[in-house]
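Thread: quick sanity check before group meeting

JM: Hey all, I'm pulling together slides for Thursday and realized we never actually wrote out the predicted structure for the chain we discussed last week. Dropping the sequence here so it's in one place. If anyone has concerns about the input, flag it before I start.
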Amino acid sequence: MKADTQIEAAVKATLGRLTDAYARRDAAQLRAAFAPDPDVVMYGTGADEKRTGLDEIQAQAERDWAQSDAVGMNFAWLSISAAGSVSWVATDAAFEITAGGQSFKLEARGTFVLEKRENDWLIVHAHFSFPAGGQEEGESFPEP
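JM (edit): ok, ran it. Output follows.
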Protein backbone atom coordinates (compact mmCIF):
# COMPACT_ATOMS: atom_id res chain seq x y z
CA MET A 1 0.00 0.00 0.00
CA LYS A 2 1.24 3.48 -0.80
CA ALA A 3 2.79 5.14 2.24
CA ASP A 4 0.99 8.13 3.68
CA THR A 5 2.72 11.52 3.50
CA GLN A 6 4.07 11.32 7.06
CA ILE A 7 5.70 7.91 6.54
CA GLU A 8 6.96 8.94 3.10
CA ALA A 9 8.64 12.03 4.56
CA ALA A 10 10.23 10.02 7.39
CA VAL A 11 11.54 7.34 5.01
CA LYS A 12 12.91 10.01 2.65
CA ALA A 13 14.65 11.61 5.65
CA THR A 14 16.39 8.30 6.47
CA LEU A 15 17.48 7.88 2.86
CA GLY A 16 18.67 11.49 2.86
CA ARG A 17 20.79 10.82 5.95
CA LEU A 18 22.24 7.78 4.19
CA THR A 19 23.20 9.67 1.02
CA ASP A 20 24.56 12.60 3.02
CA ALA A 21 26.69 10.34 5.23
CA TYR A 22 27.97 8.43 2.19
CA ALA A 23 29.02 11.63 0.39
CA ARG A 24 30.63 13.09 3.53
CA ARG A 25 32.35 9.76 4.31
CA ASP A 26 30.83 9.77 7.76
CA ALA A 27 30.82 6.15 8.94
CA ALA A 28 28.97 6.84 12.19
CA GLN A 29 26.10 8.59 10.44
CA LEU A 30 26.02 5.95 7.71
CA ARG A 31 25.65 3.23 10.38
CA ALA A 32 22.90 5.26 12.07
CA ALA A 33 20.70 4.93 8.97
CA PHE A 34 20.68 1.13 9.37
CA ALA A 35 19.13 -1.03 12.07
CA PRO A 36 21.77 -2.26 14.53
CA ASP A 37 20.72 -5.88 13.96
CA PRO A 38 23.28 -8.60 13.23
CA ASP A 39 21.23 -9.71 10.20
CA VAL A 40 20.87 -6.31 8.50
CA VAL A 41 21.84 -6.91 4.86
CA MET A 42 23.17 -4.80 2.02
CA TYR A 43 23.85 -6.06 -1.49
CA GLY A 44 26.09 -3.85 -3.61
CA THR A 45 26.68 -3.91 -7.34
CA GLY A 46 29.88 -5.98 -7.25
CA ALA A 47 29.93 -9.78 -7.28
CA ASP A 48 31.55 -9.82 -3.82
CA GLU A 49 29.37 -7.11 -2.28
CA LYS A 50 27.07 -9.05 0.04
CA ARG A 51 27.34 -7.44 3.46
CA THR A 52 25.68 -8.61 6.68
CA GLY A 53 25.82 -6.53 9.85
CA LEU A 54 26.87 -2.94 10.44
CA ASP A 55 30.59 -3.68 10.51
CA GLU A 56 30.49 -5.23 7.02
CA ILE A 57 28.29 -2.44 5.66
CA GLN A 58 30.73 0.13 7.04
CA ALA A 59 33.67 -1.83 5.57
CA GLN A 60 32.00 -1.71 2.14
CA ALA A 61 31.52 2.04 2.37
CA GLU A 62 35.13 2.48 3.48
CA ARG A 63 36.29 0.39 0.51
CA ASP A 64 34.24 2.64 -1.79
CA TRP A 65 35.77 5.72 -0.18
CA ALA A 66 39.32 4.35 -0.41
CA GLN A 67 38.89 3.74 -4.14
CA SER A 68 37.53 7.21 -4.92
CA ASP A 69 38.34 10.86 -4.46
CA ALA A 70 34.65 11.70 -4.08
CA VAL A 71 31.50 9.63 -4.32
CA GLY A 72 27.85 10.47 -4.01
CA MET A 73 24.58 8.64 -4.29
CA ASN A 74 21.38 10.28 -5.48
CA PHE A 75 17.84 8.97 -5.73
CA ALA A 76 15.55 10.16 -8.52
CA TRP A 77 12.21 8.41 -8.87
CA LEU A 78 11.05 6.83 -5.60
CA SER A 79 8.18 4.47 -4.85
CA ILE A 80 7.52 4.27 -1.12
CA SER A 81 4.98 1.85 0.33
CA ALA A 82 4.25 0.80 3.89
CA ALA A 83 2.17 -1.47 6.10
CA GLY A 84 2.33 -1.05 9.85
CA SER A 85 5.93 -0.63 10.98
CA VAL A 86 7.49 -1.77 7.67
CA SER A 87 8.20 0.28 4.56
CA TRP A 88 9.68 -0.76 1.24
CA VAL A 89 11.24 1.47 -1.36
CA ALA A 90 12.19 1.16 -5.01
CA THR A 91 14.29 3.88 -6.60
CA ASP A 92 16.18 4.90 -9.67
CA ALA A 93 19.56 5.89 -8.35
CA ALA A 94 22.86 7.26 -9.58
CA PHE A 95 26.36 7.04 -8.18
CA GLU A 96 28.49 10.09 -9.00
CA ILE A 97 32.15 9.20 -8.67
CA THR A 98 35.47 10.96 -9.00
CA ALA A 99 38.43 8.58 -9.07
CA GLY A 100 41.82 8.70 -10.69
CA GLY A 101 41.19 12.24 -11.92
CA GLN A 102 38.02 11.27 -13.80
CA SER A 103 34.41 11.95 -12.91
CA PHE A 104 31.61 9.69 -14.05
CA LYS A 105 28.05 8.74 -13.25
CA LEU A 106 26.69 5.21 -12.92
CA GLU A 107 22.94 4.76 -13.27
CA ALA A 108 21.65 2.21 -10.78
CA ARG A 109 18.58 0.86 -9.09
CA GLY A 110 17.99 0.48 -5.40
CA THR A 111 15.53 -1.24 -3.13
CA PHE A 112 15.22 -0.83 0.61
CA VAL A 113 13.19 -2.31 3.42
CA LEU A 114 12.89 -0.11 6.50
CA GLU A 115 11.38 -0.79 9.89
CA LYS A 116 10.07 1.80 12.30
CA ARG A 117 11.94 1.57 15.58
CA GLU A 118 10.61 3.98 18.20
CA ASN A 119 10.60 7.29 16.25
CA ASP A 120 13.05 6.35 13.47
CA TRP A 121 12.71 4.43 10.23
CA LEU A 122 15.87 2.29 9.91
CA ILE A 123 17.11 0.32 6.93
CA VAL A 124 17.05 -3.44 7.51
CA HIS A 125 17.74 -4.43 3.89
CA ALA A 126 19.35 -2.55 0.98
CA HIS A 127 20.08 -3.74 -2.54
CA PHE A 128 21.77 -1.88 -5.40
CA SER A 129 22.09 -3.08 -8.98
CA PHE A 130 22.93 -1.84 -12.44
CA PRO A 131 20.53 -2.29 -15.35
CA ALA A 132 21.77 -5.12 -17.59
CA GLY A 133 24.19 -3.95 -20.26
CA GLY A 134 23.52 -5.24 -23.75
CA GLN A 135 19.78 -5.43 -23.17
CA GLU A 136 17.90 -3.27 -25.62
CA GLU A 137 14.74 -1.44 -24.63
CA GLY A 138 11.75 -3.71 -25.17
CA GLU A 139 13.87 -6.87 -24.87
CA SER A 140 13.48 -9.18 -21.87
CA PHE A 141 17.04 -10.50 -21.81
CA PRO A 142 20.51 -9.13 -22.55
CA GLU A 143 22.50 -10.40 -25.53
CA PRO A 144 24.31 -13.65 -24.63
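AS: nice. Helices lie at 5-24, 27-32, 54-66. The chain has three helices and six strands.
JM: adding both to the slides.
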